[in-house]
Design a protein that fits this description.
The structure holds 2 protein chains of 2 kinds.
Chain A (H helix, E strand, L loop, with lengths): L7 E8 L6 H11 L5 H13 L15 H6 L6 E6 L3 E7 L7 H9 L3 E7 L6 H12 L4 E7 L8 H15 L6 E6 L23 H7 L12 E3 L2 E3 L11 E5 L4 E2 L4 E5 L4 E8 L8 E2 L3 E6 L10 E4 L5 E12 L10 E6 L2 E14 L6 E2 L10 E14 L10 E6 L5 E7 L1
Helix pairs in contact in A: 4-5
Chain B lengths: L7 H19 L3 E4 L4 H14 L8 E5 L5 H14 L3 E5 H6 L17 H11 L4 E3 L16 E4 L27 E4 L7 H11 L10 E8 L2 E4 L13 E7 L9 E4 L5 H10 L17 H8 L3
Parallel strand pairs in B: 1-2, 1-4, 2-3, 4-6
Antiparallel strand pairs in B: 5-6, 7-8, 7-9, 8-10, 9-10
Helix pairs in contact in B: 1-2, 6-7
Classes of the chains: A alpha+beta, B alpha/beta.
Chain lengths: 419, 301
């Protein structure tokens, strides 16, 4: 039996252009790690036969909705799961079409790592750059560039090295700490789960080995203590008559009983009396734990407030500079008020200024284009009705991210990363 | 430096508790859909953890097809007493009696499809604005694209092409009058995760998850429990088998598996080497390739 108690969770996203073999790669990982069930495989075999293929098309394993099959495209982010004795994996599988920047942003927002696929025959293309830039904007710490279809270039070391060289040149512009390169054939299974016998010149690890061993413990911020209050627990029962607990998920930092804390926006200070869970009090709480804090003093605290350490406070302000990705097919209305959600806080916001848009293929600034349409990325200045307590997204994903919501339709229209 | 790592079950737990608390905070009248299966039992357990030491601040809703395993009802009533929460029962029989739906006839007749109408009526009657369910993304391909917060229009329908993007841990529960949400706090769990967690937490489970002797019939590759609700063909003769259930739903469409698994450890061993998906035993999913997608669009949970 697997000793699940020591297993970690790795969330990664996969990106590639339409025919780079992404679905095949995911199918291969699921298949080779024995995460595919007989009835699923049976269905895929049948479909492959029906289509007249002489091999089992593993890409059909990730086939989605009827609506998508009719159009032969993937519309939306799909989530897939597999585990090995070392880790559990959650894949955010994002479609590769040019128009789906918003899906890649969505998938990348919760990922520790991005697997980006390149077709060995074509090398680095526009979409490779776009996917890498989005991964970099979303501050994904690890990128794995898989050079796929090596079987179609005779497993050539020269082809591989040329692509690695090209990518390194491009990647010097990115802010990604950790980049890996792996030559693979998803179709044949080379270097995905099992080491390739066709590329003895390659001395690095297989993709699965890398996913199992890449160091992710430091991806969470354990320095800045931030606890957005989510819900106030007041049992008002005879047994717990005076109980008043602040429930929430630690956004970052490490909280301990006795810590001197400050509550935003009131600024009142107190100490942590206890950190409660269903199993009883704990001696520390860190991201991403869900706990309930009790304080020494009776202070008026509600949802949207933030508990922080006295000597390490977030920024507080109403003028917020953000990089925004527009997600809605309704263009941005510069005159509108939007609902803004940030941690557990909700305020209204107006667009004060669109500073510049990005050319997402080159990261060049477009100063004169002021229209924000779906999939556009731009730097904006927002003005909020009440102050936010925030950190830069670069420092803290949880307190540096926000979404904008259309007041009339209530639809999420934009994703923002605070600068 | 200290090791600030959570094991993955604790991380999944923390994520689910966060989502459940978001529901309690963002909605006026949330509820938890309880079927008596392991996923909704897990959901009830996580809800208890989320608000401890207070009680769960929302009711449980059971959509009763009238074709339940008696063991499910016993378990349900014990749990309600233990949690001290309100139970709302929506009855498919009532929907049939009032003429809103028509009972299916024939050998494969099931009340599974009829549940959707009863569910939507119950949500409307109690003005429920967020119904939490134990669906998981690994169950079925239509569910792989489901959001944690899944928006439904005023007819309770799901539009797969027009879902709200969901980023980071920010959940948009805003809606216009008449619309509501389905929320799936255990989206990221797999069947294996659920059993490992149940084992870690040593949760009490309904007895029919464990091996027992039962009169069954075999039909279209499924083993179905023999009951008064099942119409038998002349050729079908009930036989006594050693079985357990991997999922629990309506008696007429929940298939059993041959199994000797007598403990949580046995079940985990069995699931970890199983070569069939758990929904492989569900007759309701076998009706067509897009059976789940079609039902979800109509408002199925």
């Amino acid at each position: 039996m697997i000793d699940y108690k020591n297993n970690e969770l790795l969330r990664f996203t996969t990106a590639g252009s339409v025919d780079d073999g992404k679905s095949t790669l995911i199918g291969r990982m699921l298949y080779d790690s024995k995460s595919i069930f007989e009835d699923q495989l049976e269905a895929v075999k049948k479909s492959s036969e029906y289509k007249g293929l002489d091999y089992v098309d593993l890409s059909l394993l990730t086939d989605g909705l009827k609506a998508e099959r009719e159009q032969s495209i993937t519309i939306d982010v799909a989530y897939r799961y597999f585990s090995t004795p070392r880790r559990k994996f959650i894949i955010a599988d994002t479609p590769g079409h040019i128009q789906y920047t918003r899906n890649m942003v969505t998938g990348a927002s919760t990922a520790n790592l991005a697997v980006i696929l390149v077709d060995a025959r074509h090398g680095i293309v526009e979409q490779t750059c776009r996917h890498s830039l989005i991964a970099s904007l979303l501050k994904i710490s690890h990128i794995v560039l898989c050079i796929n279809k090596m079987d179609l270039v005779d497993y050539s070391k020269e082809v591989y090295e040329k692509i690695v060289e090209d990518y390194k040149k491009f990647a010097s512009k990115l802010e990604v700490k950790d980049i890996h390169f792996i030559p693979i054939s998803a179709l044949m299974g080379d270097n995905v789960v099992d080491r390739s016998e066709n590329m003895d010149w390659y001395e690095g690890s297989t993709l699965l080995y890398l996913l199992e061993n890449v160091h992710i413990a430091s991806d969470n911020n354990h320095i800045d203590c931030r606890f957005p209050v989510q819900y106030v627990i007041r049992p008002q029962s005879d047994l717990n008559h005076d109980y008043r607990g602040y429930a929430g998920r630690v956004a970052s930092g490490v909280f301990k009983p006795g810590d001197e804390i400050s509550v935003l926006p009131s600024g009142f200070t107190s100490r942590i009396k206890s950190i409660d869970t269903y199993e009883g009090p704990v001696h520390e709480a860190f991201a991403p734990m869900s706990v309930t804090l009790r304080l020494e003093d009776d202070i008026d605290i509600s949802r949207g407030d933030m508990i922080v350490r006295v000597n390490n406070q977030p920024e507080t302000g109403q003028d917020i500079d953000v990089i925004v990705c527009w997600l809605s097919n309704q263009p941005m209305n510069p005159a509108a008020k939007y609902i803004l959600m940030h941690t557990t806080k909700e305020v209204k916001a107006i667009i004060k200024e669109l500073n510049y848009k990005f050319d997402i293929n080159t990261l060049h600034r477009l100063e004169n284009d002021k229209e924000m349409k779906m999939n556009d990325i731009a730097r904006l200045r927002l003005r909020t009705t009440q102050p936010l307590f925030y950190d830069s997204y670069e420092r803290n994903r949880n307190t540096g991210s926000l979404i904008l919501i259309d007041e009339a339709t209530k639809v999420t229209v934009a994703a923002g990363m605070i600068i | 430096m200290e090791n600030y790592n959570l094991n993955y079950l604790k991380e999944l737990e923390a994520e689910s508790i966060f989502v459940i608390r978001e529901v309690a905070a963002q909605f006026e009248k949330p509820a938890l859909l309880f079927s008596g299966g392991k996923d909704s039992i897990l959901l009830a357990h996580l809800s208890r953890k989320a608000f401890h030491p207070a009680k769960i601040p929302f009711p449980l809703i059971h959509i009763d097809t009238g074709h339940n395993f008696p063991e499910t009802l016993t378990y349900r009533d014990d749990l309600i007493k233990e949690l001290g929460v309100k139970l709302i029962v929506g009855s498919v029989q009532d929907s049939i009696d009032s003429g809103k739906v028509k009972e299916e006839t024939g050998f494969d007749a099931s009340r599974n499809m009829l549940q959707t109408v009863t569910l939507l009526d119950t949500l409307e009657e109690y003005k429920i604005d967020a119904a939490m369910g134990g669906a998981r993304r690994d169950e079925e391909k239509a569910r792989a694209k489901e959001r944690f917060f899944s928006h439904r229009d005023e007819f309770g329908q799901w539009d797969p092409k027009n879902q709200r993007p969901e980023l980071w841990n920010i959940f948009n529960g805003k809606k216009n009058p008449g619309e509501h949400f389905r929320v799936f706090p255990i989206s990221n769990w797999t069947e294996m995760d659920v059993w490992n967690y149940i084992h870690m937490e040593n949760l009490k489970m309904p007895v029919i998850y464990f091996t027992h002797q039962r009169l069954c019939i075999q039909r279209n590759g499924s083993i179905l429990a023999h009951s008064e609700y099942l119409n038998l063909r002349d050729t079908e003769i009930p036989e006594m088998l050693q079985v357990r259930f991997r999922t629990i739903g309506d008696m007429t469409c929940t298939g059993a598996v041959l199994s000797e698994a007598n403990s949580l450890e046995d079940i985990i061993k069995e699931v970890s080497v199983s070569r069939q998906t758990e929904r492989g035993t569900r007759a309701d999913d076998k009706r067509s390739e897009s059976a789940m997608e079609d039902r979800k669009k109509e408002g199925y949970f």
